Amino acid sequence: MNKSFIALAVASVVAFPASAVEVYRDGDTSFSVGGRLAVRAEHTKSVGNEDSTNKLINSSSRINFGFTHGLVNDWVAGAKAEWGYNPVANGDQEFGNRLGNIYFAHDDAGLITVGKQWSVYYDVTGWTDVFWVYGGTASGTYDGRDEGGAAGGDGGVSGTGRADEAITYRNQFGPVKVGVQYQFENGSSTGDREYGLQGSVIYDIEQVGLSLGGTYGQTKYKGEEDDKVWSLAALYDNNNIYAAAQYGQYENHISFSNTYLAEKAKGYELIGAYTIQDMYQVYGGYNSVTDDNSDAELTYGLIGAAWVPANIVIALELKLGTKAKDNNGVDTGADQYALLARYNF
Questions:
Q1: Which residues are bridge partners to 79 per DSSP?
Q2: CA-to-CA distance for 71 and 61, rounded, in angstroms?
Q3: I need a labelling partner for 41 at 20 to 30 A (CA). Which of 59, 86, 193, 330 fits?
Q4: Are the C-beta atoms of residues 152 and 137 closer than 8 Å to each other?
Q5: CATH class for the region spanning 3-344
Q6: Of residues 256 and 164, which shows the higher confidence score?
Q7: CB burial class (10 A; 0-12, 13-18, 19+) of residue 305?
Q8: Which among 34, 53, 26, 36 is positioned nearest to 336, based on CA atoms?
Q9: Are 275 and 291 a contacting pair, CB within 8 Å?
Q10: Is the pLDDT of residue 187 over 90?
């Protein structure tokens, strides 16, 4: 099977980047285990009546299992299951579902994936979601209708992040990658979804390490205006330099709080990173999403440095100039400093 297409399959059903160890292979059948354990010491500055805090917290630890089996005529079938867990929790451990899907891949016919998975929207917006600790809050990926508002969620309800109840098709034609997505109906506390549609197109110029992408999504909810998102992005990844920019506009999608959904909003994300000797990294970036019809805003800058030998990541990341305003203009944003320790297995 085409190696680039295998990479495409992994990226679409696990995450990017993904690490896994093959623990069993018998002919055309394999089983792999991957994931990471990650914690961070985090200082949050005081704001308003809130005191500063110093905490040791989970930083998106997870474990995943992958299965593949070779079929006839060069088809490959696979399944991925991934759960998040909290390694610093006290008491009973709680696991949360991150991914669960089945896929069928062929180097000519393409990739079909069914279940909870990374969206085709994220095929484009994921280029700027590569900070070690923060980021990913202005592209419409996670900051949509999910419970938690602008502070959290996995983008599953509207299908912009780890899409719930989704079926996708991806393929590559020379330098052009395409993806389409359909979400089935489901109800939640943030909306009664009838269906969702998405599409993405990416053009790769491999000679210079440049990629250009665009994506559009629309989700139909009962008794509400449609949730609409679109985003454009550019990526340069060459000669130890990684630089990406994203801009998007969002209708009835961005939730700046648990009670306020913006009719129209726009956002952008930037990142630039330089890696030395495949081990040391310095980087910086910016996230900003604003409401067109109120004072609601989530904006901050990021700078950091990381040491990444083999499967280890040690990173210091600073979140600065933070503004987190609700629709009345009340700002509760606080700068944060984090020291991350992570082991990929």
A1: 67, 102
A2: 33
A3: 330
A4: no
A5: mainly beta
A6: 164
A7: middle
A8: 53
A9: no
A10: no
Q: What pLDDT score was predicted for residue 7?
A: 53
Q: Which two tokens stand for residue 166?
A: 């989704």
Partnered with residue 74 across adjacent β-strands are none
Alpha carbon separation from 173 to 125, 155, 170 (Å, rounded): 21, 28, 10
Is 231 within 8 Å of 223 (Cβ atoms)? no
Predicted confidence at residue 3, as pLDDT, reads 46
pLDDT at 14: 46
101-147 pLDDT per residue, tens: 999 999 999 999 999 999 999 999 999 999 999 999 999 999 667 65
**Cα–Cα nearest to 117, from 55, 61, 181:** 181
d(CA 53, CA 313): 24
252: which residues sit within 8 A by CB, 6+ positions away?
224, 225, 226, 227, 228, 261, 262, 263
Where are the domains positioned within the chain?
Answer: 3-344
Q: How far apart are the C-alpha atoms of 93 and 341, rounded to whole Å?
A: 20
pTM, rounded to two decimals: 0.92
Is the confidence at residue 2, as pLDDT, over 90?
no
Q: What's the CA gap between 282 and 303, in Å, rounded? A: 8
Give residue 227's region: left, alpha or beta (phi > 0; psi -120 to 50). Answer: beta
Tokens of 218: 């629309």
DSSP character for 149?
G
